[in-house]
Amino acid sequence: MQYSTVSRGRNYALWTIQILLALVFLFSGSMKFVMPVAKMNEGAVKFPGLFYHFIGTCEVLGALGLILPGLTGIRRGLTPLAAAGLLIIMIGATTVTLMDGLGMVALLPFVVGVLVAIVAYGRWGWLRGVV
Fold first, then answer.
1. pLDDT tens digit string along 21-58?
2. Within a 13 Å sphere around the CA of 116, how many CA atoms are in the beta-carbon half?
3. Are 119 and 18 in contact (CB under 8 A)?
4. Residue 31, class by beta-carbon neighbours within 10 Å (0-12 exposed, 13-18 middle, 19+ buried)?
5. Phi then psi for 37, rounded to 5 degrees?
6. Among residues 12, 25, 4, which one has the least CA distance to residue 122?
7. Measured distance CA(94)–CA(106) in Å, rounded
8. How much is the pTM?
9. Of the four, 21, 31, 44, 93, which is 20 to 30 A from 62 by CA?
């Protein structure tokens, strides 16, 4: 398939963002299994350990969903769905961080959420071929 210069550049930019986000979510998701629950519950908002493990599992699976469909060419429409799921997690992370009273720290999950939204929107065309 031939890409125009604009679409090729957009594709490279999306792949760069996807790889960086996959690394972030693989790290973040795996840390939810490694860190003690007491350490993760140091803020004002407390969650049970199973919830952290659930979110960690979702983040790792979402990271794989950002990369594997495009690499294998199988079910490429799953990439925007994975990005949309990760966006929901980032909305929750931003909200919880704000509830902890850490206003400027909430900027990090917000920016990650914006990047995930860009991937979801940018790869949405892949979804049309699947559904």
1. 999 999 999 999 999 999 998 878 899 999 999 999 99
2. 27
3. yes
4. middle
5. -60, -40
6. 12
7. 5
8. 0.87
9. 44
